[in-house]
Amino acid sequence: MEWVSHPARERPWSTVLLLLIMILAAVAATAVGGNPWWGILGFLLLFASLWSYFLPCRYIMDDRGVRKRSLFGEEKMTWDRVRSIVPDRYGVLLSPFPEPSRLAKFRGLSVQFSGNGREVLEFVRDRMGSRGPGTERQG
């Protein structure tokens, strides 16, 4: 299973609102800092922190695991490392922890849907099925 997720393109109204907020924050940083470079730096830092929203990512799922390819490289997670999943409206977090943990967002792999949420969750659940109940948490 393979697809490209590009949330900024898939949710145009959210993208417009987010860009307006980022521009307002940059204008405020310029006003407070007294120099336009503060605004530019602030805008770039916000963009960098939200790169997975603005830039497309390619996901590849197979019997071995999941690969996420982006401009910044490739992340991988094999199915034997996935201990629980946390689905939400826009994707699923594959967690290496069997119980809820704040570290899951840093140690796990976030998989974004692209109109294929049902298929992705079915694929993940099929791979997790042999582990029994308790492998899924609501996000």
What does this structure look like?
- With 139 residues, the chain is of the alpha+beta class.
- The chain folds into two domains: 2-53; 58-131, PH-domain like (Roll), CATH 2.30.29.
- Helices cover 43% and strands 24% of the residues.
- The protein has helices spanning 7-10, 12-33, 36-49, 51-54, 104-107, 117-128, and strands at 2-5, 57-61, 65-70, 73-78, 84-87, 91-95, 109-112.
- The strands form two sheets. A four-stranded antiparallel sheet has the order 1-2-3-4, with no helix packed on it.
- β5 and β6 form a beta hairpin.
- α2 (12-33) packs antiparallel against α3 (36-49).
- The longest helix has 22 residues, at 12-33.
Write the layout of secondary structure elements.
Layout: E1 2-5, H1 7-10, H2 12-33, H3 36-49, H4 51-54, E2 57-61, E3 65-70, E4 73-78, E5 84-87, E6 91-95, H5 104-107, E7 109-112, H6 117-128
Antiparallel strand pairs: 1-2, 2-3, 3-4, 5-6, 6-7
Helix pairs in contact: 2-3
Q: Nutshell version of this structure?
A:
This protein has 139 residues and is an alpha+beta fold. The chain is 43% helix and 24% strand.
The helix fraction, in percent, is 40-55%
Mean pLDDT: 91
The CATH first-level class of the largest domain comes to Mainly Beta
Radius of gyration: 18 Å
Shape descriptor: elongated
Count of spatially separate domains: 2
- Total count of helical runs of at least 4 residues: 6
The total beta strand count reads 7
Helical/strand content category: alpha+beta
Spatial arrangement of strands, main beta sheet: 1-2-3-4
Largest sheet composition? 4 strands, antiparallel
| % residues in beta strands | 15-25%
- Could you tell me how far the N terminus lies from the C terminus, measured between alpha carbons in angstroms? 23 Å
List the secondary-structure elements in sequence, H or E: EHHHHEEEEEHEH
CATH topology of the largest domain: PH-domain like
Low-confidence stretches: none
CATH architecture label name of the largest domain:
Roll
